[in-house]
Amino acid sequence: MSLDPRAGKPATQSDLTNIPRLISSYYLNKPDMSVPEQRVSFGTSGHRGSSLNGSFTQSHIRAITQAIVDYRTEQGITGPLFVGMDTHALSEAAQADAICVLAANGVKVRYQSGLSYTPTPAVSREILAWNKNRTEDLADGIIITPSHNPPQDGGFKYNPTNGGPAGAEITSWVEKKANEYLENSLKGVKYEDYSSAIKAPNVEEVDFLQHYVDDLETIIDFDAIRKADIEIGIDPLGGAAVYYWDAIAKKYGIKIKVVNYRVDPTFSFMTIDRDGKIRMDCSSQYAMASLISMKDKFALAGANDPDSDRHGIVCRSGLMNPNHFLAVAIEYLFTHRPQWSKDAEVGKTLVSSSIIDRVVAGLGRKLCEVPVGFKWFVDGLYSGKLGFGGEESAGASFLRKDGTVWTTDKDGPVMVLLAAEIMAVTRKDPAELYADIVRRYGNPVYRRIDSPCSLSQKKVLKAMDPSLVEASTLAGEPIVAKLTKAPGNGAALGGLKVVTENGWFAARPSGTEAIYKIYMESFKGEEHLDLIQKEAVEIVSAALKKAGV
After folding, report:
1. pTM for this structure?
2. Residues tagged active-site
């Protein structure tokens, strides 16, 4: 991906989304069901789209919400449904419509008091807290967010009774039902006017914020942070955690300085991401340029994306690579949580760095490698089988100090607070600790590129047969594994991963673009990585050719 010349520079007026037009389009545009891009489609994180192109409209939200109600009815889910939204402009409209449908169906709705914003992990925690020790009247949730996507986007996802992202068996059911409603002009969708829905006896306010903040002491060592007197700089990136950080500082007596309180649906305060777009990606050095420029003002700084399920860690040396912080967090947690089970495993996605594999082996723990998507960690975190689950895109969660479940969705604020705890206890910042890991386990270099791919080629790659890969070596080393299923749970990868002793690549088709993504890593330096990249493209091309596409 080429670097935009304005990457890392402040957004200008011409970059900003026309919010009145965006909101008008939400109500005025109707999906054309003959256009695949305008149908309901659940990816790894729910349905996403924009009202400007007819892929995220009032019709979509009413249909999806009714489909979720139908799913609840089929499954006998009768407890409260916790609804949260982030700060994207379309989230406000979508939450209002969802409440109108839920109220009309008699669902017990719970939303953040004052109609304020709710981080994804706060919804997950609320579901799990309600369901603890219950076998009946279980709760679930809806989170309205397109994550770190640009301001014109909207997103809508369902978290079932386990508190985490819904699996494919659920999302495919909801997707099919929602599209049926759209095809039939919303016939069968119940709807109540907002003025009466918000006052309905089955619709109530809940203080997600206070519940979450009060519970944090069960997962983070605030005594250590307070005693170390660390000042932490925080940029919520205009997201749902904007009001959480001061509440955390007050509750636990630690030094937190929020450097940006602005909530602006255009996100005009952002710096431009590498591709020229406004994107609130806390793992991008370009989107994080403003906070990185303040790195010398704080012992440690952190950021979250709009729904606060991702984290960015800034040390005096700069923004940490997410893979690097995951490795540090894993090594620290599994040596500083004595109440955790000795059998608790470490979860990682197949495209996360292999430095994690080496750290886990050094700890004497078992690694559970799964396909891309946090949903694959849900059951393990819920049961305590996994002590930690993390992915290379800066999303992770882990168990409470007593070894029980905290959240089954990604938790950005907790990961930032963990970075502060690590620094307080070890007296080293996470970047310094990663340097120690490198000295012991090697220094990997990591890269991701995109390569053109037709629709037919994408279908073959998604269901790749390992026998199509004839190569026996990669970048001068024997291939030790050709994977199309995850070693940790046997689930299909939706692509291919090829592994050697000191390197690997993984190829996965994009869900929306005519490309496939190649992730790669080498423990032998940039030249070796260049060779892996070259041969990865050749290996995939040869396999696709052998398959006749």
Report:
1. 0.96
2. 147
